[in-house]
Design goal:
This protein has 1 helix and 7 strands, in the order βββββββα. It is of the alpha+beta class. A 5-stranded antiparallel sheet has the order 1-2-5-6-7, covered by helices on one side. The N and C termini lie close together (10 Å).
Length: 98
């Protein structure tokens, strides 16, 4: 994973880039004879470093270069929750592999 520091907001914006995770296979899909695999989402997320030290997500893109797959806290409650879950799942999968 790449964490990039953007030069805006006095060094308080970070990017978590898992866009290279696309070929990473997870488990096989149960009850299928073809042994299809689940794949991790190749997410990119923006974080804001708050004054108290918390790293707050401010935007998550689930598919690189697709503006329709960008989610923010201003989206519907469960859309934002699901985007955060996808990001955490990708983050955990990459952590286990590396």
């Amino acid at each position: 994973m790449l964490f990039w520091l953007l030069r805006s907001q006095a060094g308080r914006i970070y990017i978590g880039d898992y866009s290279t995770a696309a070929p990473l296979k997870r488990n096989t899909i149960p009850f299928t004879s073809s042994k299809q695999h689940y794949y991790v989402a190749n997410c990119v997320a923006l974080f804001y470093a708050a004054e108290n030290g918390d790293l707050l997500p401010i935007a998550i893109q689930l598919v690189p270069n697709d503006k329709d797959s960008v989610f923010t806290p201003h989206d519907a409650k469960y859309d934002w929750l699901l985007a955060k879950m996808y990001f955490r799942s990708t983050q955990s999968s990459i952590h286990e592999v590396s």
